[in-house]
Amino acid sequence: MDKNKKLTIVDIATKAGVSTATVSRFLNGQLNQMSEKTAVKLQKIIEETSYTRNVAAVQLAKQKSNLVAVIASNIDEYFSSEYFKGIVSILSAQGFIGVLFDSNSNTTTESALMASVYNQKFAGMVLQPVSTDPHLIEKFTNDAVPVVLIDRDIGNGQSITVTTNNFQVTKYAMEHFLNQGFNKVTIITEPINRISTRVERIAGVRSVFDHSQLIEVDSDHLNFSELSDELDINNPKNLLFVLKERLLIQLLANTKLLNEPKIPQRITGFIDTSMPKYLAPNYKFIQQSPFLMGATAAEVLLAQISAKQPEHIKQIVIPSKFE
């Protein structure tokens, strides 16, 4: 090597037999993310070579690091827009900018977006995953790029996830309706696709009711008139339980039950805004807090970026309320 040539981080990584990301972590004082042996080796090489950082390059990297990617599963959903507002409220106060991407509930689109986010060197990412692959964010994890999952878990046991108490609150709501005399629940949801949120809510229903029916629908091409027989809507002992607010509003707007005040509540589900309460002010729903979930996800992500997030925290639950 030319002795007059200024060493780069790539040269140090090559000499140490580690990745450039590991050298970067060492230079940034993130020693908890490598073995003591690796840290000692890097320190020795840096001292022997009199390596100094390229300050201009460091400053350029810092200029790019105020962007945080937020990949939503579907930006048409009220839930997504609400949690994005929560994320931005925290990021902007700390000088970061949230950039919203839409995977449109498509795993191929999600994969392409994540590749773009990774290559563009965002400071971190908040992801509402469509895929249930436990290796989904492995590349980010290996390069110490902070990632927080929101709403859904991918079951890898390593990702920090901000979610709600899906099973517990559903079970509590179902016990209420069981005591009201219902003996059957018709669950209306988009395709389950092993998505943890939907799986947990369905499990909550079935932990209380022996008789439940599952109907999977496409919210973009929904025709309730075609589903009327399946819904068993005229059965007074059948409770319609909807897993998503968008579907719930469509159902509330397309049934005659709301126009018959003497009929007890026979429709409920998860809500993200106050809109269903305006349509049915006397009904009880499971109210999520997507804004708070988003704000919490942003706080956790910023703590990771500043290397202040305790490693033992893997799941944060923002409780929903049945009211």
TrEMBL record:
Keywords in alphabetical order: DNA-binding, Transcription, Transcription regulation
Domain annotation HTH lacI-type: ranges: 7-62
A Pfam family assignment: LacI
GO molecular function, one term: transcription cis-regulatory region binding
Family matches, as Gene3D superfamilies: 3.40.50.2300, lambda repressor-like DNA-binding domains (1.10.260.40)
InterPro entries: HTH_LacI, Lambda_DNA-bd_dom_sf, Peripla_BP_I, SBP_2_dom
Protein name: KDG operon repressor (KdgR), LacI family
Native source species: Leuconostoc kimchii (strain IMSNU 11154 / KCTC 2386 / IH25)
